[in-house]
């Protein structure tokens, strides 16, 4: 799969770690994040990853800022994005299975490298179940279109 990754200045080190982890899993990573620790604006990177995923340039996305919250809020403004902040792997797995989330977000100041790996693993390996969940995903889309 092609995975878009984005981050702000608070998450450069964790982004680099996760980028290598995802590549070692056999995926292609498209880096939309900053590579410096100079202060920058997380909405820029949330939007870039959101547009890449919604536009089909990437299959899924990973966003990392200090908490994961701000960058996910920016991504969720892009039509077609369902970005979820997860600080543990169970929610990361279920947001793919039940919500058809296409972007995962987490915080470099919240989770360490090992937890981030577990979150990413579960997110990338889970499959959307559809079925009874599709009605609710469609409802989210309807809200987005109004």
Description:
It is a single chain. The protein has one domain: Sugar-phosphate isomerase, RpiB/LacA/LacB (Ribose 5-phosphate Isomerase B, Chain: A), CATH 3.40.1400. Strands 2-1-3-5-4 form a five-stranded parallel beta sheet, with helices on both faces. Helix content is 47%, strand content 16%. It contains six helices and five strands; from the N terminus they run E-H-E-H-E-H-E-H-E-H-H. The protein has helices at 12-24, 42-54, 69-75, 89-99, 113-125, 134-145, and strands at residues 2-7, 28-31, 60-65, 83-85, 103-107. Helix 4 (89-99) links the parallel strand 4 (83-85) and strand 5. The longest helix is centred in the first third of the chain and has 13 residues, at 12-24. The model has no long low-confidence stretch (mean pLDDT 98). The N and C termini lie far apart (31 Å). By secondary structure, it is of the alpha/beta class.
Secondary structure: number of strands: 5
Number of domains: 1
Broad structural category: alpha/beta
Morphology: globular
Q: Please, what is the average pLDDT?
A: 98
CATH architecture call:
3-Layer(aba) Sandwich
Q: Which percent range describes the beta-strand content?
A: 15-25%
Rg over CA atoms, rounded to whole Å, is 14 Å
Q: Please give the alpha-carbon distance between the first and last residues.
A: 31 Å
- According to CATH, what is the topology? Ribose 5-phosphate Isomerase B, Chain: A
Largest sheet: 5 strands, parallel
Elements, N to C (H/E): EHEHEHEHEHH
CATH class: Alpha Beta
- Helix count, DSSP H or I runs of 4 or more residues: 6
With strands numbered from the N-terminus, the spatial order across the biggest sheet is: 2-1-3-5-4
Which stretches are low in confidence, meaning pLDDT under 50 for 5 or more residues running?
none
What is the name of the CATH superfamily?
A: Sugar-phosphate isomerase, RpiB/LacA/LacB
Helix content: 40-55%
């Amino acid at each position: 799969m092609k995975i878009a990754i984005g981050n702000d200045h608070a998450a450069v080190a964790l982004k680099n770690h996760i980028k290598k982890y995802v590549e070692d899993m056999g995926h292609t990573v498209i880096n939309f994040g900053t590579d410096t620790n100079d202060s920058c604006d997380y909405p820029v990177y949330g939007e870039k990853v959101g547009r890449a995923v919604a536009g089909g340039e990437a299959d899924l996305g990973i966003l990392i800022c200090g908490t994961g919250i701000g960058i996910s809020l920016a991504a969720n403004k892009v039509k077609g994005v369902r970005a979820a902040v997860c600080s543990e792997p169970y929610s990361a797995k279920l947001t793919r299975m039940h919500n058809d989330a296409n972007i995962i977000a987490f915080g470099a100041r919240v989770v360490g490298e090992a937890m981030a790996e577990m979150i990413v693993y579960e997110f990338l390996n889970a499959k959307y179940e559809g079925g009874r969940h599709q009605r609710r995903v469609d409802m989210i889309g309807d809200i987005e279109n109004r």
